[in-house]
């Protein structure tokens, strides 16, 4: 029997979740809800229900939550109390304390609780993580991310840190297999909104890897790049195109004295891998389906979501306090 899925939130992200759930084998979209109606016309033959309680009453097995962040806690706790497996769009909640309550509720109920960090399901990221785990880069030294582009009109309730930088924090910890140890950040407000629209952050993971993030939504160019530098070279993952490129440390000796005296690395071969490129949102729903069915574990757990939110809130606190380093 397919998993009876409910979807709450039919906005900019909800419409894509509706499409993907309908396309995912082993899932059936049986109920949708949004108190604001169905602006994108995704409900089809389904009635647009008014709230999470009506969604639960429709007899669902699992739910996808795509409401604004400020409502994640309320909706998540209701679903946990009703025994419904749930994936919540990132971030898990509007505060760390709220995220803790949500994660604990699902853990205590013995339910699958996931957070929708779709970038983890990008083909370039998955291939990168596999190659790092195989030791192809040797020791990892540094992870850098750049996530820049124009302002997304869909955002109204959070700034660039909670909307976009949260992806990079989750990705970095996932790729490195290590949580954050400390972080510091600076933000600016240039768009006339109450929330920050640019952030520069640096940090260190518990493993000793140093990290930095450049994130804004005031750039006329769109960029989604993750660079992992290690003892054998560097991997560059482009999550917009799904491409992964490896820049190897050179092995050809140089006869130019000025360069030869520098005790560093030289340019080597460059390889761009040919990868199968599936829609990350489809991979994410399949992973959630498998977790609900008890046949897979490739989800972002709510506990991981709480850690990411802890780092994000530390970034904002650091920026508010002049950029001081905050230990986690």
Automatic annotation (TrEMBL):
Residues 126-235 form the GFO/IDH/MocA-like oxidoreductase domain. Residues 3-117 form the Gfo/Idh/MocA-like oxidoreductase N-terminal domain. The keyword rRNA-binding does not apply. The keyword Chloroplast does not apply. Keywords: NAD. This is Gfo/Idh/MocA family oxidoreductase. The lineage of its organism: Bacteria, Bacillati, Actinomycetota, Actinomycetes, Micrococcales.
